[in-house]
């Protein structure tokens, strides 16, 4: 009986102990996982997410379970632990675990003695203490992580992302000695959805329109504190208290600035503006010009990719439909919306199926459209204009343009048209005629098409049937290359060989015309194939296309000049052909190109700097040249601080300092070189050897 | 009087006195013998004092001198069995273990050791002046490997504004590394080139210097981040010179209009005359003062550097005018004739031309004959071409090889002919650089050359600090030129054969740019550091020494033995013996023979 009570208590103790242990490692794992994530975030400068906590927690927890397997603790071990820790048990707690009938008298007595002390108060105190410590550790890390995320992390990340690109500038920043502390807060405009950031460097990289706030603490009381922008604009700080000053400005322009304390100016600091770009529109489908031939579905699949740096507000398709011909052209404009919620997304892929018949397009009409997009700063942009046209079959079949003017190869055109008419007729009668008859007629049409194709082939110089059409064999594939590849024996031989009788060159067409003719043949070939395989319905589009191309070809060989009205000046017949020249006098114009040669000035500065590399000082009058160069560099740096500001800094250093580094000189030199830009060559007078009497005499002898 | 004459006189006197004594002696029995003995005795005495020498011819092996110079490797040194010498203290330092003796002055050393007949040179060899001292010696050269690095380099020391700086040379890369050669100047790399491992490469680097005046670029050999060589490239850029151009046009066309504008904006002095009607002209004076150009006269032509004229106007010139122009060209004026007619007539007949049929090509691609200048194509087809005769030089051709611009010489001047009529198309299509290139080449070729007041040359080409430099001046007059180097007056020496050539020696002590004044005009002289261009200098030495040896080989005595004439002195002991013997006889005769 005694035994059971005691035994229960030990078992109970063990269970509680293990449960507490699990609670401990859970808290501890959470703390360690949090620390790990923070360290990773700082080291690799990533913004950590809360879900990342779970895997790291699991990893640490499993680690604990594996390396400190407290859960494996047996009852005996628990008993041993109790023996070691509590004197009251007199090293006898293991007796509880023994079956009662195995106990000796003495053991029973001992058991009885110790059972009096049970349950021991505060047996789990140690474990509890550990647990609370772990919980405390977790709370501390939690608070720490929160602080890091909101303060330290922000700066780190801000520095990494925004200053690192001009980190060499930031590194070298020299600050006026009066400044004890400063902070610059950059508040990007609302539409960018970017958070406010603060930095401890003067070089600024800010979004267009961002508010920049300078907070400067000085170590002594100063009279006047102001900023000098681009060496010309001044902006004074307002005093917060004796040692604290502040100023804010909206940045819309790149350039550079200096801090001026009581007339003493600091180093030059760069301002770089990140402009807000309009939405980039990329139309992936369709092609810039699409023609819908007979038989094709009058639908166009439009697919657009829009990208913006801060967010897209809206986009629509502006479509213009032109219908009619000549004088009677009418335009209708329509705005088609995408049925998408943009919601300020930065990147979006849109697609829309343009149903041309719904838009009211008829054959012969043309549709012009472009995509218009607005970003969340209301900057709009538009794509190029795309065109879709539907081929007008009636126009193709008409005789207009062939009945008048030069008729180049009219019968062939009629033939192609005839084939189309016949094919359509055959299709209409398909129901009434027998299948054999149908096949026969289709085959006959195919034969006609072939004959026609052969006739056209002759224009290309094709003489045999085999050469024709099937394969695409256009200009510029394979053999007509201007540049020869290494080891191309044929090309090498061609250079020396005298070749003639190349079928392709034997005709009198221009190469452009020939390529189009080849395309026609290609279409004819496709049509013939369908006709011969008894599929006149499928052949029809190809026939139409061949006809269309042929028509284009015909139009190309014509030039058309519209009639205009002329207003001729009235002639004075009495003055004509009189041969009198007395009213004609000599005329003289005089001009002097009077521009200060700024280039020469900069060029001289280059030479001065080159000399400075060797000498230790500038000579009299050279500083004026340097000042002129400085003025140029200032205006260049105001526009492009990234590339000219370091040079300007170096130049200022050069004009003040006694010992200058070669690197500074070279920075200025390369900047001036860039300012001078590309130079075109100019003619010069060449010098010849001195004109000695001896040489002169030789020359005269040679001449005579 | 010399000492020996005293002795001879004293001995003759002594002899005469003794002879007298012998003859005057009572006992004359042995007189002849005694006289003879006296003579030999006096002779012996005299010869005891006076040395007697004779000449002897002996055959002996020649003396050799092993001279170790820079670039020699230790294996080669170890192989030399006999004594080694060097002129270079750096060699001494580098090979301190192998016993090498130092010769401070080769000429002195050779004088001191006349037995040295043959000199073995190991390593890169010797310079010009040291080799001159070995002229009378047999020289054998054991060259070291060609040094690794830039072994040859050349670039113009002075270039005109806007023309590029071209640096050419040879890089010997015998290592297993790829090496980048970079031309560095004005703070950035102007041009670069890769030299592959184990190659000997002719390199050519180009830069477009923008400064006016002096500059020192650098050529840098880099392997990854290792700088293998860094040498100075000093050069100067001249100020742009103003050209004076006279254009005579039969009628103003676009080509003239654009050319005029281009020259005007580049501040050249241009007079443009175009005919309105007979003897009536429209004249533009650009950047210049007005003068009467209705009549062409010699003073007008003398002032101009180049005359541009079209064919029609050239043929319409009066006889006197064309004679004047011809004379002016012979005197240096440049003449550029624009050939526009397919049929030759009049004065321009001598410029042969050919017209081709229009083809389908719609462009003309131009090519410089030297291949240095490249152009974008012109958007029209050129059909009129020139044929180049024997005394003409083509300047521009189409890529098909048909000549467009020809050049010929007339006296001091040049006559250029061009059939290209629409170069302004380049400007219209925004290819201003091509337009400028084309006209620059044309005008540079044609324009009058200005005569320099003097020319000068400095030797050696890469003058180093504390090395003796030699300045050679060619002046126009025969007057003594006044020469100053860094404000120190130099003493010129006139060339014995060429009266206008003078030279002077000077010793630069400062590296970098030094100033030299030649007859009031200042020129700049760049003085290198002693360590600059070391590999190039070594390669030069290698060439010099092997050339020298080749020349010597032809004349050198190849015998291993030489016959020497040596004067030998007769030993004084012989005369002492003779002297004593005579004395003994005289004493013995008196004592034992005469007493009887």
Radius of gyration of chain B: 41 Å
Distance between the termini of chain B: 47 Å
Strand order of the largest sheet of chain B: 17-16-15-18-19-25-24-23-21
* Biggest interface, CB < 8 A: A-B, 51 and 69 residues
Helix content bin of chain B = 25-40%
Low-confidence stretches of chain A: 153-170, 403-410, 466-482
Distance between the termini of chain A: 149 Å
CATH architecture of the largest domain in chain B: 3-Layer(aba) Sandwich
Largest beta-sheet characterization of chain A: 6 strands, mixed
SS summary, helix count of chain B: 14
Q: What spatial form of chain B do the alpha-carbon principal axes imply?
A: elongated
Cα Rg of chain A: 46 Å
Tally of structural domains of chain B: 5
Q: Averaging pLDDT over every residue of chain B, what do you get?
A: 87
Total strand segments of chain B: 35
| Oligomer type | heterodimer
Give a description of the structure.
The complex is a heterodimer of chains A (704) and B (596). Chain A is of the alpha+beta class and 704 residues long. Residues 153-170, 403-410 and 466-482 of chain A have low confidence and may be disordered. Chain A has helices spanning 2-44, 53-67, 75-85, 105-115, 125-163, 167-172, 393-397, 410-429, 435-459, 489-496, 511-532, 536-556, 598-612, 622-639, 641-656, 662-676, 693-703, and strands spanning 179-187, 197-199, 204-207, 210-218, 225-229, 233-236, 238-241, 244-251, 255-261, 264-265, 269-274, 280-285, 289-292, 299-307, 312-323, 330-337, 347-355, 366-375, 380-382, 386-390, 587-591, 687-688. Helix content of chain A is 43%, strand content 19%. Chain A has 17 helices and 22 strands. Chain A is flat. In chain A, the strands form 4 sheets. In chain A, strands 3, 5, 6, 9, 10 and 11 form a 6-stranded mixed beta sheet that branches. In chain A, strands 13, 15, 16, 18, 19 and 20 form a 6-stranded mixed beta sheet that branches. The longest helix of chain A has 43 residues, at 2-44. In chain A, strand 18 and strand 19 (380-382) form a beta hairpin. Chain A folds into 5 domains: 2-154, no CATH class; 173-274, Immunoglobulins (Immunoglobulin-like); 280-391, Immunoglobulin-like (Sandwich); 408-471 and 507-556, no CATH class; 598-676, no CATH class. With 596 residues, chain B is α/β, with parallel strands linked by helices. Chain B folds into 5 domains: 3-52 and 570-593, no CATH class; 60-147 and 537-565, no CATH class; 161-239, Immunoglobulins (Immunoglobulin-like, Sandwich); 244-446, Rossmann fold (3-Layer(aba) Sandwich); 463-527, Immunoglobulins (Immunoglobulin-like). Chain B contains 14 helices and 35 strands. In chain B, strand 10 and strand 11 form a beta hairpin. Chain B starts with a helix and ends with a helix. The model of chain B has no long low-confidence stretch (mean pLDDT 87). The interface between A and B is large, with 51 and 69 residues.
